[in-house]
Amino acid sequence: MPTASETGIISKNIDYIKSHSPQLKIPLHTYDYFNLANDKQKILELVAKLQIPTPKTYYPHSAEEVINIAEGIRYPVVIKNRLGSGGLGMNYMHSSQEMIRSYEETINKYLLDSNDFPFIQEYIPGTDYAATALFNHGELKAKLVFIALQSVPPSGGLMISRVSVRNEQMLGYLVALAGAMHWHGIIMADFRLDERDNNAKLLDVNPRFWFSLNQGIASGVDFTYLLYRIAIDDDVKSIDDHKTGIRKKYL
Q1: Half-sphere exposure of residue 123: CA atoms within 13 angstroms, side-chain side
Q2: What averages of pLDDT result for each successive group of 10 residues across the chain (251 residues)?
Q3: In CATH, what number does 57-122 get?
């Protein structure tokens, strides 16, 4: 059962793997959709088509576009790489000079060409949430929402302290997005509850197992075991609810 970066490699080569080991059961979605969900720019473009709220986002493809954007937007803003997790390559900028400098440094550090340039997002003030779910070929089987009480880095990244809650708005957005991709397997979406209008804004999607997996186990939703049962039995009984107020922390 793939868990981290190898998930994409296995998804891409799943037909080859199964042709050589037909006894293997690998509960992964098709690579086209996995790659879509893993690419922050592509998934945000799909999210926009579904009219799911997101931060205002800019996609420059040249140094000139970066300068024009830097001079015309309100600060602070966030620079994000198209690929990566755990806040890798994410930087918060508070002025045009700082953004232009940091943007160039990010391109050089990760050896990015114009097709893979980082994108720029408005900063959303508020509280971080995660909506997580398990689907069996588009059918929702289990779900969980939790709030980040503490993250590393503090500006946004790995949620090392969390508490389980309910939030139907965020789950509804995740279900709509997964439905558009006829999703199979586990999926997670990061949200921020915007303190300016009290609406959830989708920040990121993770098509792999997430860092806070034991939050689900403690809250009565064991995603790993449920995914295993789907792989072995082709289906699993749906879990319609989860415990709330369960707090977990990595020391």
Answers
A1: 16
A2: 86 93 90 91 93 94 90 92 70 91 89 87 94 96 96 81 96 96 95 94 93 94 96 94 94 83
A3: 3.30.1490.20
